[in-house]
Amino acid sequence: MNESDSANNPRFSRSVSVGRAESVSPMASAHDHTACIERALKEADLLCANADVRLTELRRKVLELIWQSHAPLGAYRLMEMLEQASDRKRVAPPTVYRALDFLIEQKLIHKVHSLNAFIGCTRPRQPHGDALFICRECGFTEEVASKPIQQAINLSASQQRFEVEDQFMEIIGRCAACRAKQKSGASQEELL
Amino acid sequence: MNESDSANNPRFSRSVSVGRAESVSPMASAHDHTACIERALKEADLLCANADVRLTELRRKVLELIWQSHAPLGAYRLMEMLEQASDRKRVAPPTVYRALDFLIEQKLIHKVHSLNAFIGCTRPRQPHGDALFICRECGFTEEVASKPIQQAINLSASQQRFEVEDQFMEIIGRCAACRAKQKSGASQEELL
DNA sequence: ATGGTTATGTTATCATATAACACTTTAAGG
DNA sequence: CCTTAAAGTGTTATATGATAACATAACCAT
Ligand SMILES: [Zn+2]
Ligand SMILES: [Zn+2]
Ligand SMILES: [Zn+2]
Ligand SMILES: [Zn+2]
């Protein structure tokens, strides 16, 4: 298990590359990610205060670690990061799963079911059910709220008299950055 | 682990009720399910012959067992069923997972990621990526191909210059049958 | 027949998630 | 303040889902 898994593994099945300070998604240099993290945490503070629930130190730390990158993060990888980040000797699965459950309940993160991983939600106030566009190569995951998609689903549901309670949309492929990268590298690859 | 899990477990997380001859989904009595199974197997025979791949006895048996109901079936439950169905002493995970991988490649089944389970595909010839409407109560899962949904996704992808390779849409809720059942049972429940 | 290829069997292990119960912190009421 | 119930966290064990690695068997084209 190492941090280049997501680049090597064709199925990008787990342990996605996540910022250990230097290993980062291609978007990391394209924006001030520190601002992303701060904004997310501040938003979480507000929402939890509003909902009268407690964003404890642990829960907040977990949220911060998930926001270390825009790529989904597995629970066990998160455990390792928690151990490093805090002075703790060991963090056991229930600890992290309980924090994850809380964050999901408060709609602060999403579970990415096709990867068994978790990612920060970019619109915690809006109704959930957005589509997640997940780059197979770099892990970068974009949450997209699309009214046409939602309307299409609602129409289909009502036609079946199906009562929607929750929904997961995960679209796997290659992000714009990775496509551009390949295109520019094509000439070199031919030299092999 | 027993066959009434899907009714008891609020998250309907696994081991969905599947036809052991009498435990069945609410739709089971509403249609000739034997015909569903036969049609699916016949279709699979044709498609595999066409693709020049081998639908071996094991793979065909796995497909048949998955089609025992319209509810997703977990790999380990499937293993148990294989042991019972055949005279085999023991079926190990790799055996069933390899068959599942094959069936997924041939687009004969879908993986239901939010349940870690598998379900027969009702349109193995069409391009995949349909939405799965999954009843939380009875497990009944309906595959719906919606052109509006697909168009909305494609539009959103092209706007981001995202290249779609695969997609999963899982909508959780309550099917028409289960909603009707509850409505008719409402008066009795009030007596409690 | 024979040898390469594909499929299956077998054992071990990894990866993900939860149950059960103990202990600690928090916040509310007296 | 002090008590105390509730909420949160720690700890151990275990359930559940999936794959690696290698051995054997079936298939099929010469
Ligand atoms: Zn960012
Ligand atoms: Zn990318
Ligand atoms: Zn049927
Ligand atoms: Zn139902």
Derived from helix and strand composition plus strand pairing, the structural class of chain A reads alpha+beta
Query: How far apart are the termini of chain A?
Result: 28 Å
The CATH topology of chain A, please?
Answer: Arc Repressor Mutant, subunit A
* Bulk shape of chain A: globular
Bound molecules: zinc ion
CATH top level class name of chain A:
Mainly Alpha
| CATH level 4 superfamily of chain A | Winged helix-like DNA-binding domain superfamily/Winged helix DNA-binding domain
Total number of strands of chain A: 5
- Give the strand line-up of the largest sheet of chain A: 4-3-5
Query: What composes the largest sheet of chain A?
Result: 3 strands, mixed
Q: Look at the structure and give the mean pLDDT of chain A.
A: 85
> What is the assembly state of the chains in this entry?
homodimer
Low-pLDDT residue intervals, each spanning 5 or more residues of chain A: 1-24
The helix content of chain A is 40-55%
CATH architecture level-2 label of chain A: Orthogonal Bundle
- Proportion of residues in extended strands of chain A: 15-25%
Order of helices and strands of chain A: HHHHHEEEEHEH
- Count of helical regions of chain A: 7
Rg result of chain A: 18 Å
